[in-house]
Write a structure and sequence with these properties.
Fermitin family member 3b; Kindlin/fermitin
């Protein structure tokens, strides 16, 4: 991942900022790991998602005719 980020900036793997890119990716992944437990609990508690607002009315009509 660090190599891809450096390549997007036009730098090579031999660049001096390679180690700092690795550290920033590791810290970002650690933040995601720490927050993943709390967000999965919130997602499992929220079962009141209105699916009708996520699909266009055209597809609702199409699905209703097949039922």
């Amino acid at each position: 991942m660090a190599g891809c980020r450096l390549a997007s900036k036009g730098k090579s793997l031999a660049d001096s900022s390679f180690q700092s890119e690795i550290q920033s990716i590791r810290s970002f992944l650690a933040m995601q790991r720490n927050n993943s437990g709390s967000s999965s609990n919130a997602a499992s508690r929220d079962e009141s998602i209105n699916t009708h607002s996520l699909v266009s009315p055209r597809y609702h009509k199409k699905y209703k005719t097949k039922q």
